[in-house]
Amino acid sequence: MNFSFYKIIFILFFYFVTGCQYAFVGLAEKIVEDREHEEQIFDFSMRSGIVSGLLSLDPNTLLEVNVNVWNRKVLLTGKTRDFFMYNKIQNYVLNYPKVEKLYNEITYTKKQNINDMVIGECKKNTDLRESNDRHSMLDDFFIDQTIRLKLIALGNSSIFNTQWRTIEGKVFLMGEAYNLIDKKRIVHVICGITDVVNVKSFIEIRPEKLP
């Protein structure tokens, strides 16, 4: 058995452990979403199927590619090693059953850095940071948790229909807001978080359902 065999076994074990953790967290968060349970369950099932399919394409690539699903719309973030894998992932998701729309924010390292790809609704002056000051996974994790606390502090129920993903200080949003004011407020609050470089939003406007 060569080293690559053990590497694949390790990756599978890693995703089994972390996948269980995120599954429980994801299901807990969906309880407060203002959506039908059938929609939430369908999105959760679709995300699981897409992740499983990407894992079969290339276990190594999946370590740096993230998948979010909202009302059959898919957001891909992260980066791949080359255009071939980028195109392979994109085609797989586009042809996945029931996917209505794809927001592909994946970059491939041989073309350009992710810093050059994102022109968001909120962009800070990156010159304030040293050029060699890179975001780590721990920094992104801290930003994610801060976003969670900030949005809860807003006290607006529409924020529970928001998903986010942080990649090297860039925050990608998807989901729904009750009105444009709520959408702008969410982006503004996240942009004010230390170490957030910019925010790109795919949040759609959907009026609040009447009781």
What topology emerges from the helices and strands here?
Elements: H1 3-30, H2 37-57, H3 59-62, E1 65-70, E2 73-80, H4 83-94, E3 101-108, E4 122-123, H5 137-154, E5 162-167, E6 170-177, H6 180-191, E7 198-205
Parallel strand pairs: 2-3, 6-7
Antiparallel strand pairs: 1-2, 4-7, 5-6
Helix pairs in contact: 2-4
Radius of gyration: 18 Å
Widest sheet: strand ordering: 4-7-6-5
Q: Give the low-pLDDT segments.
A: 3-8, 10-31, 111-119, 128-132
The number of distinct β-strands equals 7
CATH architecture of the largest domain: 2-Layer Sandwich
List the domain count as a whole number. Answer: 2
How far apart, in Å, are the first and last alpha carbons?
61 Å
CATH topology of the largest domain: Histidine-containing Protein, Chain: A
Described by strand count, sense and barrel closure, the largest sheet is:
4 strands, mixed
Which percent range fits the helix content?
A: 40-55%
Count of alpha/pi helices: 6
Strand content: 15-25%
Query: What order do the helices and strands follow?
Result: HHHEEHEEHEEHE
What is the 3D form? Answer: globular
Overall pLDDT: 76
Find the structural class using helix and strand composition. alpha/beta
CATH C-level of the largest domain: Alpha Beta
